[in-house]
Amino acid sequence: MPKIGVFDSGIGGLSILDEAFLQAPSHDYLYLADSVNAPYGEQSSAWVASRSLQLCSWLISQSCSAVVVACNTATAQAIDQIRKKFPQIPIIGIEPGIKPAAALSQTKKVGVLATASTLQSEKFNALLATLLGDCEFITQAGVGLVPLIETGDLQHPQLEQLLIQYITPMVQANADTLVLGCTHYPFLEPLIQKLFGPNLHVINTSSAVIKQMCRLIPETISKPGSVTYYSTQNSAQLETLAKQLMSHQRTRLVSSEIVAV
Ligand code: DGL
Fold first, then answer.
1. Distances (CA, A) of 21 to 65, 90, 150, 179, 214
2. Burial of 108 (0-12, 13-18, 19+ CB in 10 A)
3. Cα angle value 140/141/143 (rounded, 5°)
4. Residue whose CB lies within 8 A of the most ligand 1 atoms, among 9, 14, 34, for a mutation test
5. Can you give the pLDDT of all 261 residues of the chain as single tens digits?
6. Element (H, E) at 141
7. What Å distances lie between residue 49 and 52, 63, 133, 137, CA to CA?
8. Residues in Cβ contact with 119 at an 8 Å cutoff, skipping those fewer than 6 apart
9. Could you tell me the domains of the chain?
10. pLDDT at position 224, please?
11. Sheet holding 136-141: strands in order across?
12. What is the pLDDT of residue 98?
């Protein structure tokens, strides 16, 4: 079976990996968290692009035959360069789901919560430009959310304060749909639903991304899959948080390691 590399600045990509475990449980996964450098969201585009290329090269050097860029920021800043450098490898990226959100919204007002880097990127703004006639988008950088999520304490009172600060103006402007444009944010979905209720539709594109992965790399046999968690900072903590945050990894073979990439 092919090995599939998945990377993010930290634990955010676990929201994508969890979906991969659900839809493609027989694959063997290498998850790489660049936690020593998280968050990426306020770094320069050039830095994110060059770091993403390094992480991707490392995964390919570990015999991965496909890579999931499980980070909106890295996808926005680097996916074209990654695909150019590794044309022989399927590279799957993730973008904020503004298209499905525009289709779903009744009020035609959609909030988009993502990193500053994603919101400023050419890629995101080009996508936004294709939808502007149909819908109004209220964008907001989720400054401060990622470092709090990285601690794994999803009950941290500051998370609640930041979500209220960022999402209330969207709801007051009549947005009925919220796009989670960062792979860390799906872990906040229960808190967002608790704070804003079921009338705010939350869009998270992990399932669509993994569907695309399965189209490109279908499972050919059924067996228990494996996962190795690599961290540039603390692999034991990464493995613990993965256990805590993910729902679909019960029967697989798990190991973890610190790496200098
Ligand atoms: N999880 C990443 C994303 O989807 C990166 C967040 C960050 O490191 O700031 O954008």
1. 17, 18, 21, 23, 11
2. middle
3. 135
4. 9
5. 789 999 999 999 999 999 999 999 999 999 999 999 999 998 999 999 999 999 999 999 999 999 999 999 999 999 999 999 999 999 999 999 999 999 999 999 999 999 999 999 999 999 999 998 889 999 999 999 999 999 999 999 999 999 999 999 999 999 999 999 999 999 999 999 999 999 999 999 999 999 999 999 999 988 889 999 999 999 999 999 999 999 987 667 888 989 998
6. strand 136-141
7. 5, 22, 31, 26
8. 112, 139, 141, 181
9. 3-94+207-258 (3.40.50.1860), 98-204 (3.40.50.1860)
10. 87
11. 136-141, 109-114, 177-181, 201-203
12. 97
**Spatial CA neighbour of 166 closest among 192, 202, 140:** 140
56 is catalytic: no
Quote the tokens at residue 16: 């994508």
DSSP string, 183-245: TTGGGGHHHHHHHH-TTSEEE--HHHHHHHHHHHS---S----EEEEEESS-HHHHHHHHHHH
Q: What is the pTM of this model?
A: 0.96
Pocket-testing residue among 34, 75, 149, 184, ligand 1, by greatest number of atoms within 8 A of Cβ: 184
Residue type, 235: S
> How high is the pLDDT of residue 250?
66
Q: Which atom of ligand 1 is nearest to the CA of 13?
A: 1
What is the amino acid identity at position 230?
Answer: Y
Q: What are phi and psi of 16, to 5 degrees?
A: -80, -40
Would you call 182 a catalytic residue per the annotation?
yes
258 — phi, psi (to 5°)? -90, 140
Q: Return the structure tokens found at 82.
A: 């990654």
CA atoms within 13 A on the CB side of 245: 29
